[in-house]
Amino acid sequence: TTPTTTTYDLLVDYMISHDMDVATVFDGWITSAEAVATKSTDEWHIIDIRAQADYDAGHIEGAIPSTLGGILDAAASATKPILVVCYTGQGAGHAVMALRLSGHADAKVLKWGMSGWTSTLSTPWEDNHGDAADNYSTWIAAPGDITPTAEFGLPVIESASTDGATILAERVTVMLEGGFKGVGNADVLGTPSNYFINNYWDEGDVEHYGHIEGAYRVKPFSLEAGNDKNLDASKPVVTYCWTGQTSSMMTAYLTVLGYDAYSLKFGANGMIYSTLDSHEWITPTVDY
Q1: How many CB atoms sit inside 10 A of residue 44's CB?
Q2: Does pTM surpass 0.70?
Q3: Could you count the other beta carbons within 10 Å of the beta carbon of residue 158?
Q4: 60: helix, coil or strand?
Q5: Beta strands in the chain (DSSP E)
Q6: 31 touches 109 (CB < 8 A)
Q7: Side-chain half-sphere of 282: how many Cα atoms within 13 Å?
Q8: Helix, strand, coil shares of the chain as percentages rounded to 5?
Q9: Cα 126 to the chain's mean position, in Å?
Q10: Residue-wise pLDDT tens for the chain (288 aa)?
Q11: C-alpha of 204 from chain center
Q12: Which of 10, 151, 210, 242 has its CA 20 to 30 A from that of 44?
């Protein structure tokens, strides 16, 4: 018998054929406060997705207020490269992924969010970086073995359409309506078996730092290579990286695909900050 083509298959085939695999969609997705300020904020279409009260209390010159759910409308009039601003650089990852999957291929995240723009707004990062993993035996010290890659069932998504572009637009809407999907390190370190955990580091970094008990390492991730089969769709899929910014992008991407996906907030910076040799949060020394 001929295998049935599912809505998921139609979506993935469309994304692959339209250069929306991870390597392409992630290309050049983040930029620093210094890089933005060195040029001119006039060169960007800046969208600030923080709460209105925080925007009103102070924002980058020229930035327009929006919400995560309203990001596509806020970008509709853009004639310049889009820069999305949030508190820490994490929520903006969801917004930028939605934009990049919706025709705005040059949209970028402001690294560290407003926390990196001025030290007066750095409290979200100051309050959340640390060594939480010290409190849990579920952090496996280097060079702890990563769980061997396996194959699992794929997500099931539904649509009345058989058109890949329509399905993708529907899935982006679902992702945005769901809001930022983050999980705290205490939840994951406390009960890692509740999740499918993907350590989104290079192999050498795992060997150097260790990892969360039971974690896999599905990186690089490619739809064309079939790496979606290496994620367990029957469990919440938690991706963690160094800062929670890359993992936010990946979580948004996986949510579009139909996974129950979550980003580990603040990443390694919240778990093993004192041992990090790079990628660590540093309080801004220049206020833009």
Answers
A1: 22
A2: yes
A3: 10
A4: coil
A5: 30-31, 45-48, 64-65, 82-85, 108-110, 139-141, 182-183, 196-199, 210-212, 237-240, 261-264
A6: yes
A7: 10
A8: 40, 10, 50
A9: 20
A10: 556 789 999 999 999 999 999 999 999 999 999 999 988 778 999 999 999 999 999 999 999 999 999 999 999 999 999 999 999 999 999 999 999 999 999 999 999 999 999 999 999 999 999 999 999 999 999 988 899 999 999 999 999 999 999 999 999 999 999 999 999 999 999 999 999 999 999 999 999 999 999 999 999 999 999 999 999 999 999 999 999 999 999 999 999 999 999 999 999 999 999 999 999 999 999 999
A11: 22
A12: 242
Q: How many residues does the chain have?
A: 288
Which residue is associated with the tokens 């899929």?
237
Token pair recorded at residue 23: 């390597």
Cβ atoms of 233 and 153 closer than 8 Å: yes
